[in-house]
Amino acid sequence: MIIAIKRGVAESELEDFSRFLEGQGVKVHLSRGVSQTVLGLVGDTAAIDGEALSAHHLVEKVIRVQEPYKRANRIFHPDDTRIELKAPDGVLRRVGGGCLGIIAGPCSVETREQIIALARAVKEAGAGFLRGGAFKPRTSPYSFQGLGPAGLDLLLEAKKETGLPVVTELMDIHHLELFEDVDIIQVGARNMQNFSLLKELGRCKKPILLKRGYASTITELLMAAEYVMAGGNSRIILCERGIRSFDPYTRNILDLSAIPALKRQSHLPVIADPSHATGLAWMVPSMAKAAIAAGADGLIIEVHNNPEAALCDGEQSITPDTFASLMGALRGLADIEGKVL
Amino acid sequence: MIIAIKRGVAESELEDFSRFLEGQGVKVHLSRGVSQTVLGLVGDTAAIDGEALSAHHLVEKVIRVQEPYKRANRIFHPDDTRIELKAPDGVLRRVGGGCLGIIAGPCSVETREQIIALARAVKEAGAGFLRGGAFKPRTSPYSFQGLGPAGLDLLLEAKKETGLPVVTELMDIHHLELFEDVDIIQVGARNMQNFSLLKELGRCKKPILLKRGYASTITELLMAAEYVMAGGNSRIILCERGIRSFDPYTRNILDLSAIPALKRQSHLPVIADPSHATGLAWMVPSMAKAAIAAGADGLIIEVHNNPEAALCDGEQSITPDTFASLMGALRGLADIEGKVL
Amino acid sequence: MIIAIKRGVAESELEDFSRFLEGQGVKVHLSRGVSQTVLGLVGDTAAIDGEALSAHHLVEKVIRVQEPYKRANRIFHPDDTRIELKAPDGVLRRVGGGCLGIIAGPCSVETREQIIALARAVKEAGAGFLRGGAFKPRTSPYSFQGLGPAGLDLLLEAKKETGLPVVTELMDIHHLELFEDVDIIQVGARNMQNFSLLKELGRCKKPILLKRGYASTITELLMAAEYVMAGGNSRIILCERGIRSFDPYTRNILDLSAIPALKRQSHLPVIADPSHATGLAWMVPSMAKAAIAAGADGLIIEVHNNPEAALCDGEQSITPDTFASLMGALRGLADIEGKVL
Amino acid sequence: MIIAIKRGVAESELEDFSRFLEGQGVKVHLSRGVSQTVLGLVGDTAAIDGEALSAHHLVEKVIRVQEPYKRANRIFHPDDTRIELKAPDGVLRRVGGGCLGIIAGPCSVETREQIIALARAVKEAGAGFLRGGAFKPRTSPYSFQGLGPAGLDLLLEAKKETGLPVVTELMDIHHLELFEDVDIIQVGARNMQNFSLLKELGRCKKPILLKRGYASTITELLMAAEYVMAGGNSRIILCERGIRSFDPYTRNILDLSAIPALKRQSHLPVIADPSHATGLAWMVPSMAKAAIAAGADGLIIEVHNNPEAALCDGEQSITPDTFASLMGALRGLADIEGKVL
User: For residue D66, what is the nearest residue in chain B, using CA coordinates?
Assistant: First the structure.
């Protein structure tokens, strides 16, 4: 951490300030120039509150050189983290560390027939995980909110039928007990900084699929992961799902540079969600391929057998046929990237 | 709601589609042009899911002419809503409907002395409400998270001492019972779309201070209010507190055009938070005055007697002296705007 | 300028690098910590190319403490710059340094009758300058592009009739000779970084109204002013006219925090354009008042006697009556701000 | 074009308004509902100024169903446009229509040795075009502005030596005569809406590489192309080079969804610039591959033999070795995409 000091500060004041900082457990190195005096802080600066320091009357600017995250930081954990799950069908399902994990399924669980048919279709095409929403975060209180516990039951039935592990979103910590047989718990973009929820999930043993908020920085996403990890749960899959921009053409902008960025900063696996990012089914295959070429460890894709009758987000769902043909292209990309699909 | 139909659709398909739409309780008017066919939907279109319709194979584009919010909509409630609170000191405190409500106090409650001294100072300067955080949403799990229940107790002591009603943030629905003597419950920007929390607050009898998410649209903020109102609680104060932009100069951009926009679309009172928006204490007075000139019904401002020792967000806190002199300028503005301060 | 050095750099490499930097005319102060080594550069660092340095193999991060602009920088010119013009009617028209300059008129010059009638109306209401476009930057090549030289002639006729100095946009440096009798030359938002144009205007003797690009930072706007000032022309009025955001409610977001920011960083006068920023006539008065309350030195406002028949941007033009009543409110605000209107 | 009419408009007013619209050469279809009246406009609506209409007192909202661009629109030109150039070495160089065009070279031309060595290196690695800046748009007037005409001469010498066609940026229309032997003229992001420049280039016979402004929408980029095409020059290559966002991690966000979007809306070839978008050399290969996987028709990449000594933008330049190994990966991707590299 570097602190630029205002002009005209007396030597004695600087000494007091340095002692105050050293009292917080860091070493302070002074560099006094003709027009600029700088303090360099060395040691465990993650515990120092840079914003609070910025208000000090001697301080012009505080600059953090080291990242504020530790457990999620690749510096302290150089090897890739790989999330592994023994699926009910006996297959070891993996995301990260050279393995591509493909999660597919409908936006919402609607009926027994729907979810089982889709689970079979996506498994046959090569998906490793089944997604399906039971509790849906909707902008309007008047929109369909998901089937709730009944939807969860249907999703678990599809798991039993196909052997695919399931991924579904948790919105309310009161529902956690209902999620006992869920394999991966999803935290949606709108809850990325719901710190109460993140703290609870830190005490949970299941892998967490953590979606980037639609106006959250790379650092904020890693800090959200850090909340879960600080609680003891390190099995986190990060997910880029689009950020807000000024252009209404797509619902959001899929920020694919976040993929190499997150993989450089962190050891956690990173996947992309081209369906929610673009909101446009015809664009999903292009962006799915681009994400893998950018280095993603997997994808989460909405697939629906009858997009126009879907109870939510039909506009962004691809059909099982499109999904199967996309999987073919992804196998070629996996070879180029040297990854296992 | 207007639906533009794709080219080359057969008459019989259009008739089927119109019947399907009319089955959802609306009337359909067909306008067939040489190169463009359009359906106009009339009636209770708020219940129709435009996104789902967009996926229909006949549909090119869905355009919503009416807003998706009802209870928050000024069309259905032309008069301003005014939030009124009988404060412990017997004064009727008011926000909206021609009354300016000024909420002031520290970012975090730190000590008994601090909060009581600040409460007295802001009351004397003319504030109508005391703010102070007990539970703090912080980006880092390693930053100070607030004093928790003990902080709430200190805040309520300051309420007793000064007679000022208090405003504080609720992050976790489990804490609701601790908030019995809190006067106004704040929902922070990061929780604006925490729909579980909003639904619970719909069942609560207290006024809600609902902050705009830092990348939420005007419509999304009103839909978040609608979640609370749909549950039966209509006492909501909306708060503009800055949106994300590409310029790092200020922490966020205080979007003052949101104030006339929200007041045109809705009957709910609208206030501004210049402290969190800018993150810069020296900028707070300018932006506070600008907010009132733009038509705001009040302000929420961070005041600290020793900003450099503040445990959080000191950089953006003004001193009690600056606050008192700002209040002087605001009285002049209130006169120009024809409002009661 | 502060340079954070990568880990594990040898002493001899650091010495070579320091000598290389000192060869560029600055002094280098070394601060070597346990986990972080930092170089502090002192002297004329504006001439050092921080981006180029960032690519050096020893460098982790380059942090600029001083702003890259000099002539526009308040540090080197603490007093407010005031733009003064002896108008044809003998009145001294002023912007900045405690004087509010109000520029009003139609988006485009359309007819002799229109521009003269509007010039009279805005002068009577208290405007100090007349605006009117002859060359219009339009997104579509098929939209009305302005009357060109004929429009300029009509504008100058209105100047003669009313004695108001005129402001109009220059898009093409070839037109400069046509602008001989124009009082203030406007550079539009889309041309803020048209460096060829800025360099030419540096050789010109007239005041320049420089609009902020709709995705330009505070620093970039000041660097654009620096281009003109580096050529010898220091009579620049900066103009905030809205930045792009994710919310389609207003055309752009009028960033009023840019006003105190620019006035703190620079001595140049700063005005706001609420008409182009919002695109909504009904919102113009609120945002005009807010801009003055935020500390603006003036406004540029579109006024049209028949907005619905306007050849461009009618949606954002207010009528002469609305303008006159707005001027009344602005006089009250000028008193509060201690400025001359 | 669809016009939603305000409530309570009299039949006679509507008739007058319809006649007024029909006078502009379109057919008007009226759809009157219980709570909403809608006019559908059919015919050549590109000539109608939607913004002007929005100001009409009967109008609530104007919605454009058809795109405002014609010559750039795929609807009126369904086949891909391919830009072909007979290079001095006799090879036919192609971009678009199934052919990947790779443009590589330094940010700035610096010396004879540099540009010729780099030209040879990128040609050997498989690039089809040489880039190199002679006139550089720099944010600061004090930064290196390029070698100017001398730089252009060196670039043309490298063209003669290697036979590669050259691409370089034009900032000032006065320089056009110097560009006689340049093969492709680049318009930079900051000049995307420099309409004077675009109009001049419409009269020119050379292919234009048109970069997207960093806060321009898909539609605005196509309208900028339309300015050139309206002047008679249809040989345009569109280039996505990153848009502004709230996250400082990368310089800009490379918006790869713009690639399928532009290719769906237009027949023009679309390439990507991962160097300027990210500003980070280590990220360039990932984003280059992602762009091709997303459907791009080519790339423009900065290559420098000594990035740390580069006079501009060294931080984002890859070395010739990295470029050669990237080309290997791109060949695999070209096969998957069924394109010729």
Answer: B36
Q: Which residues of B touch A314 (CB under 8 A)?
A: 51-52, 54-56
Owner of token pair 């943030």 = B169
Residues of chain C with CATH 3.30.70.1140: 2-63
Place of tokens 């007349």: C130
pLDDT digits (tens, 9 = 90+) for D72-88: 999 888 999 999 999 88
Q: Which residues pair with B318 in a beta bridge?
A: B303
The CATH 3.20.20.70 domain(s) of chain D lie at: 74-337
Q: Is C27 on the interface with A (CB under 8 A)?
A: yes
Q: Which of the listed CATH numbers 3.30.70.1140, 3.40.50.300, 3.30.450.40, 3.40.50.1360 matches domain B2-63?
A: 3.30.70.1140
Q: Is A27 on the interface with C (CB under 8 A)?
A: yes
What proportions of chain A, in percent to the nearest 5, are helix, strand and coil? 40, 20, 40
Contact status of A333 with chain D (Cβ, < 8 Å): yes
Q: CB distance B249–C329 less than 8 Å?
A: no
Tell me whether B331 touches chain C (CB under 8 Å): no
Burial category of D251 from C-beta neighbours within 10 Å (exposed 0-12, middle 13-18, buried 19 and up): buried
Q: What is the pLDDT of residue A33?
A: 62
Q: What pTM value is reported for the model?
A: 0.91
C-alpha to C-alpha distance for A271 and A252, rounded to whole angstroms: 16
B215 contacts on D by Cβ (under 8 Å):
246
Structure tokens, C304? 């049209």
Q: Which chains touch B (3 or more CB pairs under 8 A)?
A: A, C, D
pLDDT digits over C161-206, tens only?
Answer: 999 999 999 999 889 999 999 999 999 999 999 999 999 999 999 9
Regarding predicted confidence, which is higher, B44 or A69? A69
End-to-end alpha carbon distance in chain C: 42
Q: Is D104 exposed, middle or buried (0-12, 13-18, 19+ CB in 10 A)?
A: buried
A140 touches B: beta carbon within 8 Å: yes
Whether residue D259 and residue A289 make contact (CB cut-off 8 A), yes or no, is: no
The 8-class DSSP code of residue A134 comes to S
Question: How far apart, in whole angstroms, are the C-alpha atoms of residue C263 and residue C261?
Answer: 5
> What backbone torsions phi and psi does residue A193 show, to the nearest 5 degrees?
-115, 30
* Chain B residues touching D245 at Cβ < 8 A: 246
Written as six digits, the tokens of B121 are 């100072």
Calpha distance B258→B220 (Å, rounded): 12
Domain C74-337 falls under CATH 3.20.20.70:
yes
Residues in B touching C254 (Cβ below 8 Å): 256-257
Nearest CA to D125 among D303, D317, D334? D303
Q: Does D51 touch chain C (CB under 8 A)?
A: yes
Closest chain B residue to the Cα of A219, Cα to Cα: B139
Which chain D residues are Cβ-neighbours of A248 within 8 angstroms?
217
Which chains are within 8 Å of A by 3+ CB pairs? Answer: B, C, D
* Region label for A314, one of left (φ > 0), alpha (ψ between -120 and 50) or beta (otherwise): alpha
Q: What is the mean pLDDT of residues A127-154?
A: 94
Contact D274, D254 (CB under 8 A): yes
Q: Are A42 and C33 an interchain contact pair (Cβ–Cβ within 8 Å)? A: yes
Q: Which token pair is C28?
A: 């280098």
Residue C43 falls in which region: left (phi positive, over 0), alpha (psi -120 to 50) or beta = left
Lowest mean pLDDT across A295-304, B277-286, D44-53: D44-53
* H-type alpha helices, A181-271: 195-202, 218-230, 258-265
Q: Which of C34, C36, C42 sits opposite A33 (nearest CB)?
A: C42
B321, B323, B327, B329 alpha-carbon torsion, rounded to 10°: 80
Q: Any chain B CB within 8 A of the CB of C277?
A: yes
